[in-house]
Amino acid sequence: MPDRNFFLSPKASKARLREAERARNDRWDIIKAHSQGQVSRRDLIKMGLFTSAGLLLPISGLSPFARSAFASSNIPTGLPPSPLGTATAFSQAMPRFDIFPRIPVSALTPAPTAQANTTQQPVDPALGGGFGPIEGRPPGPIWAHQQFGLLPPAIAVDASVEGAKVNTTYNPGVPSNQNSGINPATPIPPKFHPNLPDQQVDKFWTYNGTIPPKLMQVRYGEPVLFRLHNRLSVLQSANGGFGIHTISTHEHNGHHGAENDGFTGAFFFPNQFYDYHYPIVLAGRNTINTTATDPLASGPTDAGGLNKVPGDWHETMSTHWFHDHMFSFTAQNVYKGIAGMFNIYSGLDRGAEDIIDGVNLRLPSGRASVSGKSWGNLDYDVNLMLADKAWDRDGQLAMDIFEFDGFLGDVMTVNLAYKPYFEVERRKYRFRILNASVSRFFKIALSDGSPMIQIANDGNLLPNPVVLTKLDEQGIAERYDIVIDFSRYSVNQTVWMVNLAEHQDGRRVSKDLSLSEALSGNSDDPCVGKFLEFRIVRDPAQPDISQVPATLIPNPDLSNIPVARERVFEFNSGANQTTNDPITTFFGPWGIKTDGGATLAADYGRISAAPKFGTREVWTLRNGGGGWDHPIHIHFEECQTLSRDGSASKVPAWERGRKDVWRLRPSGEVKITLQFRDFGGMFMEHCHNTMHEDNAMLLRWEIDGAGTPFLNPLPTPIAKPQGVTFMAPDDILPTAFY
Amino acid sequence: MNTSLNIKTRRLLFSPTFVTLLLGIVAVLVLGGPSVQAQTTANDTVDSSVTIAVKGSVADPNGTVNVTGNVIISSRRVIDNTSTVTPALVLLDFDFSQLKGTSGSGKALKTYITGGNHADEIRPFQSADKVIVTIPYFDSSKDALSARTMLATATLNFDITTGKLTSASISVGNNVVTSAAVGSVTTAPIQ
User: Fold this and answer.
1) Chain B contact present for A445, CB below 8 A
2) CA of A49 to nearest chain B CA: how many angstroms apart?
3) What was the ipTM of the complex prediction?
């Protein structure tokens, strides 16, 4: 029995379960007061609930790790297990994602504008009253859509964030027999399993307020205007005890201007919208293939041809996701359901396996000749969003924000469904696997140890596919695209996806298990073991003509691009806060040390790095601790991994493409290289264990050395319902600029 | 902006339960509750590696595959000096890229490779550990989609004092996943 275990066994004594329930309820009151703006973290420190480092004190009746009154001294109180009632594993079909409708830009009212639309509207008294802009994007030229005239939106997606409701417009994009028999015309209530209760409107917030999670399908050469309405309650108290009703959406990891990046301080309020302009361009578009003559640099046309675009085809991306990025509330808001996936289609990665033109890699997807869709076929191309959740004794989504090491759920969900099954044919499938957890890492294998082919990492097709019998650990926000060939099985056989990574707390994986160990049911971690069942139900109606070529997308050649600067970021505990702005600063146990300076807690008014536009740099990401892992995410442009722990040979084959999230591993170090081109503005770098990010392992960096309307340095947006104002940065690190 | 809406507001609107809880906690603190202070200190990492000559065989649909080659096991022992409760851990990398297999002879000779396979594992640090991992292998004249799976059982010995991996052995055999939950499962071959 480990000496730290986050969840109690359902077999624990009733006394201990009651004790744990009491402790959780005690914490719940604090969480509620904090999330509803009644008390700040500073107040909690003054009250003696937290240490100055932001840690919850291990007080009996409060902390899950305080000594239990009912057990030996080294066994903690733990958390009560989530009630499952009559819900059983693998008894519900896994829903495919729900595709956002693509609409003409002309259908948007009001029409999108380069600068934020500051048309005034009354502001609800609960938000302070008066008048404020209809769009929450910071106003003026600094936050205008960059290259809006050059890359005008060709299509639009009109969506919202709102509380849970029944989905009556489900569009999985595939026929029912490719969706485990789910009838899309049947309304889908907001619940994790048919035998679990509906989630209440204040407990579960998602895009459009519904499940399944949403999928945006886009293609190179077709800029998208994503209009997002905040339809959450104006009452912050209507949050079900956690989450905040101000939001900001990050398209992870789009190559676009910072005004579209979901900057953590560019959040907006209920009754406002925010226009995100996703140009869907290849990096290097201003310097490489500028006349768009290379057919490899292209997007698919509706007629099955290629729409050639400027830029470097080696920068082609495929699997993204989008999620909330609200400052110091990202963990809560994403956990509440504000996350979706984003498939980018290109000439290379077409989503149509039967188009043979010498460019299309013909990865498993579906046939254009069958569906009539020349791109974006999903029959055999499946998005999987993995997330651990927990619910309270009433079956409502529950979270505990005060274990700053990281929050773990005790129930596995796939596409927000509790341990579902998925029907497959005897052929190859592509799975785009996203880890959308708060703090949990996964390590995935098939239950019989069969090989899988990893083809992409973080949305980037690898230079070469890698055959694996178990994937590497998958950190939060990492995306692994794999191909599984189910032709090795017979009809009516079953195989499961299994999680081998055992956690005892949110710091890191405590142990990677063998398949036998993970399947034994003996792990104390309830999320170890089988979580998705594949039922092989039939032979394919058409022969499988999809391919996994030996060469996918080689890395961009950076050898002729000089390294302008090296920087070192060290991710530590014990952070200090040197600024005190009530809006832009936060503090907590976590922080980042930049270029040998102090370890600082997040302040989005502070500029920690300011690379010059048009340059390339080398960054070292260092884990300052041996007791935890950090999945570090760098926004904006994909990077190449140069070394791990000082050695290029230690970069595994599945990380030799481009990436945007790196698990540093305990006491580990990663050296990467990246370019700063095409767009500018303020971006972020942070731990994607969102409990670490929120408390307060995040920094701002910006590109503002060239072009217009960039300023130097950029002013910080201060969001209010009555309008966004700006203030000068409250801190600029001495090493930030040249 | 209305200050009551400010996410950093200092105004307190406690529920009665919250006030009760607070009073209880203050009492605990007065009575000397334990405290935890995060701090960053140097971490204790020790790198080591061993290379093992491996020999074994796997029953394959194409006949017995004899497996030979070196496996490099790299180890990094990590001690978290910021915590008294977090156990030391070891990060392991098994480099299976030099493993090769053969079956048949003469014109029927087939050669098998692992596709440069590595396995990365995180384990609690202890004097001896048994790590069971699966390894893909496939006919070198075909692509990785035809891969099947063999099982490697590694026995590792560490010097508790130095943190170094001192010796290891690896046996290679058929992949049979055995557990009480599922019984014995063998990997399905490509049909």
Assistant:
1) yes
2) 7
3) 0.89
DSSP-derived letter for residue A647 is B
pLDDT grade for A225, boundaries at 50, 70 and 90? very high
Q: What is the CA radius of gyration of chain B?
A: 27
Residue A607 to residue A567: CA distance in whole angstroms: 14
The DSSP call for residue A137 is: S
Q: Does A723 touch chain B (CB under 8 A)?
A: no
Q: Do A470 and B33 touch (CB under 8 A)?
A: no
d(C-alpha A25, C-alpha A91), whole Å: 31
CB-CB under 8 Å, A508 with B134 = no
Q: Judge whether A127 is closer than 8 Å to chain B, CB to CB.
A: yes
Cβ-based neighbour number of residue A738 at 10 Å: 10
Residues A310, A290: Cα–Cα separation, whole Å: 5
Look up tokens 């049909």; give the residue.
B191
Q: By CA distance, what is A724's nearest residue in B?
A: B1
- In the 3-class helix/strand/coil scheme, how is A419-464 assigned residue by residue? CCEEEEECCEEEEEEEECCCCCCECEEECCCCCEEEEEECCEEEEE
- Residue A109's CB is within 10 A of a number of other CB atoms, namely 7
Give the pLDDT of residue A30.
74
Predicted confidence band of residue A19 (pLDDT cuts 50, 70, 90): confident
Chain B closest-CA separation from residue A712 CA (Å): 28
Evaluated on CA atoms A691, A694, A696, A701, the torsion sign reads: positive
Q: How far is CA B13 from CA A214, A242, A332, in A?
A: 37, 16, 21
Nearest to A370 by CA among A216, A181, A185, A175: A175
The one-letter code for the residue type at A256 is H
Q: In this structure, are residues A502 and A402 in contact, taking their beta carbons and an 8 Å threshold?
A: no
Q: Which of B86, B155, B190 to mutate to test the interface with A (most CBs of A within 10 A)?
A: B86
Residue that has been written with the tokens 């990677």 in this structure: A512
- Which amino acid would we find at residue A32? K
**Model pLDDT for residues A671-715, shown as the tens digit of each residue:** 999 999 999 999 999 999 999 999 999 999 999 875 455 667 899
pLDDT at A282: 98
Nearest to A699 by CA among A577, A617, A582: A577
Q: pTM for the complete prediction?
A: 0.92
Neighbours of A139 (CB within 10 A): 19
Tens of pLDDT along A38-70? 777 667 766 666 655 555 555 555 555 555 454
Q: Which two tokens mark B134?
A: 């699966």
Residue B97, Cβ density class (10 Å: 0-12 exposed, 13-18 middle, ≥19 buried): middle
